[in-house]
Each structure stands twice: as C-alpha cells, then as structure tokens.
Write a structure and sequence with these properties.
Elements: E1 2-6, H1 11-22, E2 26-31, E3 46-49, H2 55-64, E4 69-72, H3 79-84, H4 86-106, E5 111-117, H5 140-159, E6 162-168, E7 170-172, H6 190-199, E8 204-207, E9 219-224, H7 225-241, E10 245-250, E11 255-257, H8 258-269, E12 275-278, E13 287-288, H9 293-299, H10 308-322
Parallel strand pairs: 1-2, 1-4, 2-3, 4-5, 5-6, 6-10, 7-9, 8-12, 9-13
Antiparallel strand pairs: 9-11
Helix pairs in contact: 1-7, 2-4, 4-5, 6-8, 6-10, 8-10
Length: 324
C-alpha cells in the first residue's frame, strides 16, 4: 500500500512516517519545509516539497502516485499565533485540506486520517471530555480544525470519503532511544521548554498558580507520540474495513498538573529548575482531560507509553543528546 503523509517532516508526522515504513508501507512525504526539518525526513520515503495550498502542485503529486490513503498532518498549530494571524490559519488549515480532499475525489482516493485537536471543545463543561461535548473553540486554531471536521463529514456523505479524525490532547515524548523528538520554532509546550531551560541553565516561566486544581497549576492530558502513531495505525485499519466517518479523542483520561510535570523533569534530570511565576494566560482552562472510552471500545486502543515518567525520560534523552 502507498500512503501520502502531509507534514511528514514535522514532529508527529515524522514519527508516523517511520512507523508506516517499518510496517512495510510505501510512503510519500509532502511537506513545504516551512516548519518541517530536513533531519526529520526518513530517507526511505519519497519526498516532494510543496504546499497543500498549491492546487497545481497537488494535482501533479496525485497524478504521479496512486495512493491508498492519506495521513494529513500539514497544519499550523500555535494557539497564540492563530489569534494574531487568523487568516493564515484558516487559509492553510482549512483551504489546504479542502484542496487535498478535492484531489482525493478526483483521483479516487477514499481514505484519510486527519489530525484534529481537543481545542475544538473550547473551555470544557465537563471533565473528562467526551466526543459529543459541545464544540465552542476559543481560538482560530481550534475553529479551523472544527471546520475541517465539518468538511470531512460532507465529503463522506457526498463522495464516500472514509475518514478518521483524531482529536489530540497533548502530544508529548520522544523515541525511547532519543533518536527522534519534539521540535517546534517557536516552542510553546511546557515539557520541551522546561527541559531546555534546565539544559541551558535559564529561568523557566510558569504561567498561572491560581487554577482550581489541587496544586493550583493547570492540568492536561498527555499522550506519548508513540501511542499517538499507534492510534493512527488502528484508525487506518478501521477505514480499510468499514465505510463512514469516525471521530476519536486521543488521550489517556488522566491529567497531570504543570507542577507534576516540573517535579518529574527535576526527578529525571536530577536537577532543580529555577522558576519564575507569571500570570495565567487568557483562555487557559483549569483542566483538560480526555474521555478515551470510544477509542478504547471501538478500536481497542490503549496507550502503552503514556505514563509520565516514560514521556519525560524520553523527552529528556532527546533534548539532552541534542544539547551542545
């Protein structure tokens, strides 16, 4: 089988490419390299440089290759940037996906795995969050992903596109041997930022200590990137066997507070962080944890690597090995 992976030079996309190649799939990586990294490209895959916003380019890619499925990771992901530049997010995340779907229909490619986000829910009305929770995004990033979910639903009805939309909670961690890991510019996630602050002997800024949680720092659900790509494999198997559209939370159902994250980083590193307290960021919810019941019951998916120590230890190995 031949799989197209958009955004395959990014964090999650590169892990997905490796897993697909290891499993014997033929893989074509499509990435603009605007936010991807050459080092993340797997030499076993065919690489084509370009953007989903370029309809002529997409037409040529689909004309040259006969794909059995598409894994779509090519999106902008910064909440803060989306608030500052909403047009950028709606253009890339929505129009880029629409262009991709139109080529899939034209070339009779009927299966897609889509990277969605828990940001579609907005501030939760219940914890843990089930898939049927109201969708009230608080930022253009979450809104753009929700728009794509609606578009997928209509393409499923009109063109029989089979899809799985995975609503990620907090993707985290690295390869267990430290050979691959998380890298964003700019980096906004607490685990890599805290680790880099420790490695660079810098002060780490902790946002908010007034949350309605046991230790007053916000609580989030973290899923190891290796578990995340495993979910995509079982999702692909689902749409290889049955028609329709399917939406799943990808999380553990257990949240960890920012303080627990920092404590584990200090335990793994054997060093103490210097912490500067700052006010909480606007719109940050007290707690965001997934209800993973549907993905467990429907796909039989249970995370294997998403305990906090494995997440932090693998991330520490990745960042410390790259540190000069």
């Amino acid at each position: 089988m031949k799989i197209l992976v958009t955004g395959g030079a990014g964090y999650i996309g590169s892990f997905m490419v490796k897993r697909l190649l290891d499993d014997g799939y033929e893989v074509v990586v499509l990435d603009s390299m605007e936010r991807g990294y050459v080092e993340a490209l797997d030499p076993r895959a065919t690489f084509v440089k370009g953007t989903t916003l370029d309809k002529v380019f997409l037409q040529l890619v689909f004309a040259e290759h006969s794909f059995d499925a598409v894994f779509h990771f090519a999106a902008y992901i910064s909440v803060a940037e989306s608030v500052d530049r909403p047009g950028l997010y709606f253009a890339n995340n929505v129009f880029g996906t629409l262009n991709l779907l139109e080529q899939m229909v034209k070339h009779k490619v009927s299966r897609i795995i889509f990277s969605s986000t828990a940001a579609v829910y907005g501030n939760p009305q219940q914890i843990p969050i089930p898939e049927d929770h109201p969708k009230v995004p608080e930022n253009p990033y979450g809104e753009s992903k929700l728009m794509v979910e609606h578009i997928l639903s209509w393409f499923q009805r009109s063109h029989n596109i089979r899809y799985v939309a995975f609503r990620y909670f907090n993707a985290s961690g690295a390869a267990l041997d430290g050979s691959m890991g998380e890298r964003h510019e700019p980096e906004t996630h607490i685990i890599p930022n805290a680790i880099k602050a420790l490695l660079n002997k810098k002060t780490f800024t902790l946002y908010g200590n007034d949350y309605d949680t046991p230790d007053h720092t916000c609580v989030r659900d973290y899923i190891h990137v290796l578990d995340l790509v495993e979910a995509h494999i079982v999702g692909l198997n689902k749409i290889l066997q049955v028609e329709g559209g399917h939406t799943y939370n990808v999380g553990t159902g257990k949240g960890f507070s920012n303080k627990e994250i920092i404590d584990m980083i200090e335990e793994v590193a054997g060093e103490q962080l210097v912490i500067e307290q700052a006010p909480r960021r606007p719109g940050d919810a007290d707690e965001l944890t997934a209800d993973p019941t549907r993905i467990k019951n429907d796909l039989g998916f249970v995370p294997s690597y998403s305990d906090l120590k494995t997440i932090i230890s693998s991330a520490w190995k990745w960042h410390s090995q790259r540190h000069p």
